[in-house]
Amino acid sequence: MSELITRATRAFLRDFRLKVLFCLALGLPLLSAAAEGPDPAAPATAHVESTQEVDTAPVVVDGVVLFGVRGFPAYPAGKRAQAIVDRIEAVAADPTMSRQSLHIEQEPGASLIMADKKRIMGVVDADANLERIDRHTLSKGYVWRIGEAVDAWRHDRNPDVLKRNALFTFGASLLLMLVLWTGHRLFRRLRSWIESRFKPKVHDVHIKSFQVIRGEHIWRLLTGVLGLLWVATVLTAVYLYLYNVLTLFPWTRGLANDLVVILVDPLHTMGKGLLKSIPKLVFLIVLFFVIRYLLKLVRLFFSGIADGTVVLPQFEADWAWPTYRLVRLFLVAFALIIAYPYIPGSESAAFKGVSLFIGVLFSLGSSSVIGNLIAGYTMTYRKAFRKGDRIKIGEHLGDVEQIRLLVTHLRTPKNEEVVVPNSTVLSSEVINYSTMAQREGLILHTTVGIGYETPWRQVEAMLLEAAARTPGLLQEPRPFVLHKALGDFCVTYEINAYCADPKAMNRLYTELHRNILDIFNEYGVQIMTPAYEGDPEQPKVVAKDQWYTAPARPPEG
Fewer CB within 10 Å, N- or C-terminus of the chain? Predict the structure, then answer.
């Protein structure tokens, strides 16, 4: 590690010394020119260019900035700088070219920097005006910097130097792995020691009987801080390793110099964006709290309606919470519309594109969801059924367990749960057995087919007797019998009786059928109806003296 620091210090001092000498070469003529006063022969464009932005680009060789050059309308600065770099590297790669071959050739309006007979670059008056020194002094400084770059280029590519740097890189890699391994073990021991010593002392924080924060959360925070310190240590060690290793090789030296920029630039960009967005963020925070307290007031109002403390004419208490959810949705949507222009990045094309993409996905994939949602609210205000009602939807019979915005949950008499989409409920017929049961009673009915030889009065009396024997069926309103059909072989009778509990339907039907079987057996009346095969010897009619066969009774008077 000490060798790494020593090499980094040497590289910094060498680069710093070169920059100081170059600045002195540029600064001395500037000081003398300032002492002598302005040159009346200076071109008038100097002042104009000083007040305008000039296109400039750095000349970078092996990650080291030599100097900057300006551009022209027909020759951009970046293209000019790259051409100069290519020529410098070509001179450095030519072993026949020495540093002493670098010289300046003066031409009218330009100073040409040459390497023997090869031109590297030209310095014109516009370059000197940008630096505010004369062209000859600027050309000398450029020659000196190019000579240093040529020497460094050749030194860094020397085979012995590359071998030594490769060995140094290998040793630094082993050292980094050793440091990380040792540090990881030490960190684990430190964490175990802290946990055994301090964790039992971390307790919940209370204010009287109110728990502010749990001790487990405090301990997680402390361990998170320790983990953050370890991550920072690892990142620092990796950064020092990468910087020193990448600096050793000319091909990666530029990347080494840009490591800090690569790491810090995103944070710098986010920080600038955050500072720029502070007024918008303040507006969003204020809007958030306004909408939040407005929603609390709306919830309090509808809670009063649901509890009965607030009464609105023609507004059911059961509508309170569904209506609150609708109002809350509208308020949140209204807040989003207001907040959208103030969301950082909402003006960017990427943000608009992502928003459009999400909107398309939502519209394509949620059509059934929205249909069920609308159906759920429609059912709420239709009052088709309530929680606890016994209903029948299509083929499904059961008690309503839950009514949600998207689906309705039924519990069948077989203890099965049926989940029915609200769109299906809305498009299907719904039979509600509980709506009239408490006020007027639910009518249970069943049919029997009896031959023509049995007096109808006797059949009616037996059916009414079976209803009277069935516990759970109401005697008021009184049960009644309907003659449903005069068939080819029998008369179809229907017994109708009232009940107050629709959830007992199956049990009451079973008891009623049992009593019908029992009472018909008691009076010897056959329920089975034979098919017609031929005319009987005796007509199948009831004699008048048998019209009131027991248990039927003739009318009084």
Answer: C
